[in-house]
User: What shape does this take?
Amino acid sequence: MFAFIVSIFSKESCMWLVAIAWIYVVGLMAVTEVTEHGIVAGIMTFLGYCVLPLSIVWYIAGSKMRRMKIARKEELARRARAQRHGGAAQGGADEQPRRREARDRSDSDSGDSDSSDSGGSDSGGGDSGSSSD
Assistant: This one.
């Protein structure tokens, strides 16, 4: 009978079932502790027998999924890099003039305010260059 019940659930569902059953059992233990020894004993029982062990078990059980997610992200990043580098090699002649045009436009838009600043720094650089001769 137990094998049939387990066969209905997937491995992940079975983990949830075990965790919920364990929480129920420890909750009953904590309620018993509260009635016999006090609220602090019940809270400590619940934390010590339920929260801490389940958090450790779920962390360990989820490590494979975390590794798979990291590997998937790295693979997607690797593919994106390969597409960018492959696209740059194929369409590099088309993209470079576009980039230059965009750079020229941005320089011409901000060039008015930068030209006076760069002129002052150029003359200052020239003075320091002549003084070092």
Residues 4 and 10 are 12 Å apart (CA to CA). The radius of gyration is 33 Å.
